[in-house]
Design a protein that fits this description.
The radius of gyration is 17 Å and the shape is globular. Helix content is 36%, strand content 17%. It has a domain of 144 residues: TIM Barrel, CATH 3.20.20.10. 40% of the residues are buried. By secondary structure, it is of the alpha/beta class. Strands 7-6-5-4-3-2-1-8 form an 8-stranded parallel sheet.
């Protein structure tokens, strides 16, 4: 695996997709999904030009933070499912929590952020395809959760995130990306308090990030296309 070459290739594809859509490539952030990667791999990726890392699991996030593996990264995001009893391990330790999917979790984040005296940036995760196997708030409930978020002084709503179904071929997820873009614009239009803060639409992964960029993504979460197939977890090796 040539990590530097992979990073350059993904960045070039993002830029080309943006240009084809009449967008500025600088508007799109590449978030490296570092799930199951080692400290050394993460350090090498940052050295090779990655600026934003996204972690799926609280335990891995904490271990990498303790090892200072993210040193040199501009931002660290939490992109996986977050349980309320682990909020204290994440709030204030990452720049953005992308996966807020319930009022209960939102309230727990607000409480912990208040305790720390900070404002925590978040995205609301949307279950755009209504998949039973995935978390996320239903599209019709996004507005209510967004209004709850903007009413909380220690939370800043930055936008929306979605994980559509696994793409089986080009264009497979276009309908979901289009729906997310419309939902993002509609939600932002109905919020007066932090319109300027709500500027992030996180969608698109290794199999469909170019398509997501074409439909308005401002952040894509890419793992396999950067790091190759995920290695087994240590306990499975």
């Amino acid at each position: 695996m040539d990590l530097k070459q992979n990073i350059m290739a993904v960045k070039e594809k993002i830029a080309a997709a943006a240009v084809r859509a009449g967008r500025d490539p600088a508007q799109i952030t590449l978030c490296a999904a570092t799930k199951v990667q080692t400290d050394d791999t993460i350090r090498a990726a940052i050295e090779a030009g990655l600026e934003v890392c996204g972690e799926n699991r609280v335990q891995e996030l904490c271990a990498h933070l303790e090892a200072d593996a993210y040193a040199g990264a501009r931002e660290v995001h939490f992109i996986g499912h977050l349980q309320t009893n682990k909020v204290n391990k994440v709030v204030g330790r990452v720049d953005l929590i992308q996966s807020v999917d319930s009022l209960r979790l939102l309230e727990a984040i607000e409480k912990q952020a208040e305790k720390l005296g900070i404002v925590q940036d978040i995205l609301l995760e949307v279950n755009i395809a209504g998949e039973l196997s995935k978390g996320g708030v239903a599209p019709e409930d996004v507005q209510d959760l967004a209004q709850a978020a903007v009413s909380m002084p220690h939370v800043r709503l930055r936008g929306l995130m979605a994980i559509p179904p696994v793409a089986h071929g080009p264009g497979a997820n276009t309908q979901y990306f289009v729906k997310m873009r419309r939902l993002f614009v509609d939600t932002k239009d109905k919020i007066a308090d932090n319109k300027n803060d709500m500027n992030c639409l996180s969608m698109g992964m290794s199999g469909d990030f170019e398509e997501a960029v074409a439909q308005g993504a401002t952040l894509v979460r890419v793992g396999t296309a950067l790091f190759g197939p995920r290695p087994p977890r240590p306990e499975q090796a």
